[in-house]
Amino acid sequence: MQLRDLLLSSLATLTIASASAQTGQKPAPHTKVVKTDTIVIRKPLVKPGMPAQTLAANAVMAVPEKKPYKPVPLAGEKAYYGTMDDYIKEFVKKYLRVHQQTLSVVMGRGNTQFSLMDNVLQQHDIPKELKYLAVIESALNHNAVSRVGAVGPWQFMASTARMMGLKVSGKKDERRDLYKSTNAAAKYLAYLYDQLNDWLLVVAAYNSGPAPIHRAIARTGSNSFWDIKQHLPKETQGHVMAFIATATIFENMSKFIGISDLPDDMSVTKEDVALVDKKAMPKKPKIVFSDDELKNMAIVRLSEPLSEELMVKELGLDKKTHDKWNPDYDMYEMGTYATEFYSLRIPKEKLDNFIEKKEMLTKRSRQIYSALNM
Description:
The chain is 54% helix and 3% strand.
């Protein structure tokens, strides 16, 4: 498999979902649409004979105070994640185990690109961690094209790209230009942040479009991603989780490479790093089961996600056992798994029931996921 295919395979689901979100999505009715590629400079009031002190005061007043952006929350920041902190840290560990080789390769090819992106984002006062959104979108592939027509490292649809000031035509497509597309992405991220005031909500809106986020906020009455999470498309949930994991890992990549199990506080000591051979990438650790578990276990291959909640209910599964046997199923359901198939472990006694109900489970799962996209 070519390097491009390797890098894109594990992120394909997220890329397609993100691109499709830019097609036809409109801001919520109460949202004021602005042309974000137009910069308006407020001129100071100047009159003939005006004293110098007054001129200076007007010049200062003419520049509106800009509200600083909040930091991007990485894993381990308990003050932000609260009760979700342990879940986030465990997800990052699983994400690293599943995607470590791919992330390491992307880091290698992204060293020079990240420097350019940092400079552009800094010019717009956007936190530099937002550059990792391009890793999720395209694995930094300038020529990436999704099935719905999103192009470039930031996977812009043509309409959104033009709105952000990029030229898109048969002769020229600035979505492939890293510098120009990153400028456009910075404008779009700022536009979303002005509406949502939280970077996780911005990442969610970048994937699904602003409308589903506003609907979920209206439905729950909350501006917290964790409160509205279950009301968002599964792909959008996975997009946000993948961003948190990727940003956390890349910000600490020099420490994480070669370490298959991260400490709970997401920190790695110098002693830990000294013991790591960074060229030796560990294999994905195997899940250890007892002899009795193996005797009573059946494995079925899924080619598309089934609603975990629906499976547990319809098959009468023990949730605790199901989670132990399938610890990374949530990644598969949210589209952040490394492959397009999943080997689901269920009790042998449930196998016939699963086969009998698989068609129903598939149809109803599609309905559940489709309802979240509406």
